[in-house]
Write a structure and sequence with these properties.
By secondary structure, the chain is an alpha/beta fold. Bifunctional enzyme that converts glutamate to glutamate 5-semialdehyde, an intermediate in the biosynthesis of proline, ornithine and arginine. Can form homodimers/multimers. Its EC number is 2.7.2.11, 1.2.1.41. It catalyses: L-glutamate 5-semialdehyde + phosphate + NADP(+) = L-glutamyl 5-phosphate + NADPH + H(+); L-glutamate + ATP = L-glutamyl 5-phosphate + ADP.
Amino acid sequence: MLCRAALLPSLRSTGRFWQQSDVAGSHPCLLAPNLVLRNKCARGWSNIPFITVPLSRTHGKSFAHRSELKHAKRIVVKLGSAVVTRGDECGLALGRLASIVEQVSMLQNQGREMMIVTSGAVAFGKQRLRHEILLSQSVRQALHSGQNQLKDMAIPVLEARACAAAGQSGLMALYEAMFTQYSICAAQILVTNLDFHDEQKRRNLNGTLHELLRMNIVPIINTNDAVVPPPEPNSDLQGVISVKDNDSLAARLAVEMKTDLLIILSDVEGLFDSPPGSDDAKLIDIFYPGDQQSVTFGTKSRVGMGGMEAKVKAALWALQGGTSVVIANGTHPKISGHVITDIVEGKKVGTFFSEVKPAGPTVEQQAEMARTGGRSLAALQPEQRAEIIYHLADLLTDQREEILQANKKDLEEAESKGRLALPLLKRLSLSTSKLNSLAIGLRQIAASSQDSVGRVLRKTRIAKDLELEQVTVPIGVLLVIFESRPDCLPQVSALAIASGNGLLLKGGKEASHSNQILHHLTQEALSIHGVKDAVQLVNTREEVEDLCRLDKLIDLIIPRGSSQLVRDIQKAAKGIPVMGHSEGICHVYVDLEASVEKVTRIVRDSKCEYPAACNALETLLIHRDLLRTPVFDQIIDMLRVEQVKIHAGPKFASYLTFSPSEVKSLRTEYGDLECCIEVVDSVQDAIEHIHKYGSSHTDVIITENEKTAEMFLQHLDSACVFWNASTRFSDGYRFGLGAEVGISTSRIHARGPVGIEGLLTTKWLLRGENHIVSDFSEQGSMKYLHENLPLPQRNTN
């Protein structure tokens, strides 16, 4: 049986509802499983007995950032009229309510204290009264006419207070039934304006709420619409489902109850800088006090008395009282099922109200700056873009000491906190030789970028004086997310500059000092031609998942980091293409006709030169007939000398009496001095194994048989396939691309190490002389020629 308390504060004379002895012997749903009674105090919120719960408090600071919302303990969820009611304003949106109750229950069961401020009684009552009126009229009409056929029956305008009186019990019964499914009790509290104006009634209300929260009960607060002033004449129920101060009610309760978070759910995504639906309307991610002047408020929702302006006023009042506020959409079918939990988890949903303005621009503003700067960058002459990259290369060597000093800070902090494993520490570390290699790579990019943007790929004469060109253009705005690799920043920046793309960079916090100085040098180089804003470093507390939702601002995401990072981004990015690979499971196949000398050199280099790299050997495939031969013995001896831990594949283990630890999975990327050895019967068997367990990254065959090698090269479906060469050659710098933004295993657009070419797309240019399509009809005067024209000569200097 569900506990229900219909509590009118005006009828209560004390600040207590249940005695402690009553609670101990009452229904089990009244007592929280982890309830600890301390001197009859409100749990965790006051040291004053319930009978004298304080009416005011010294308000604390609201949360400054979304990421802090996960720490919210006490939460008020305000359900606007448009959220609770159906589109016809007659009855409740049951599916939506069930989803909201599920989310509130989940948070309540996490140990949070949830309260709901709800509308809906009038709508529910309207539905019931309409049914009763129709039934009554049909009976009377049937008796009067003596026949079953009924005339059209007009339903009179229903008075809102009567609807509220008829719907209040049904609304609460519905909430009770829904919360019962999660073993949670709900208690109804009806209030009016007088309950806030009268001091004693405020005490009663405050004390009741504290007691309910202490007993793990969810208060359902609703305005007593049965006694509120009548609606405006001839307005039917428009604007009366929710009383005029419903938003104010939620804000007032939130502050008086010392709530950490107030979630206001409406039928719009949040606060916009102009009326939603207008062409230039943009959702405001974070709203600060004093920003009202920059906002134009539109009309209110289809139901309810309060529009967005009323919500903003209530939100700012609550914020001033120390309660964080988020206004979000509770009606959208794609997000309503998780909107509340997403907000509490700190995800970028709706508009977050904050008193703390960041020192720099928001990530949305940075994306806009990158797009504008990228377009200016693309408009420069190729020689000017190359000059920027050459200057950046010079800065990397000229400012070497400052860069290494910043990198030293990152290394010391990472080591002191024990945050990174050894392979990641190696990636984090910069050195003089690394910086010199970076500078050389950047100069290669500059030299090869002279005609990358605007190059004509195809030229066709469609008809007389009608010529078509396909030319290369930048993709737009790139988001590159990288971990523990500060050397990635100048590489990717140079490639973006060469290809005329705007760039957003999100580096790991473990490399913050290194990234800051490298980004500063990048912007210094860009400044020589006035395009400083083209490359932006995201320094705010944006979660990667939130960045992946900026589909209107970002055109391509390129992750650089662990396989888990890449998978998370591929999962989170909805509407934005992701270029990259989730794993680097690279294979080396040692054929029966392999050279002993080549085998040991190539295997050693592939596995041991840099085991943390994505192009390092992870699985060594050996032809079955090589077992117990000098070739096999030398491979094993070399791996032991290099201290490589060996894991045996299932077939390899079956040949051994005492084998190394058997591999748990043949799809493992070790990223360290470890590898798997497996046995195959032939080159075809090796190809099939790689297709089944590989990641289409880089795979190698070692053999002296050219026919076998060509079969491997032609039939293996990986981004990079090598013959008698180390897997470590799979790299943009080693390919002569200067650098790479990553290695793509995708089959669309770019594959393998991605340099400048992979960051370009195309557009079509058609030049005509008053041409129209109807001229090419059967009766027209013109005919299609479709002649291929010679292309302009490329600049190869």
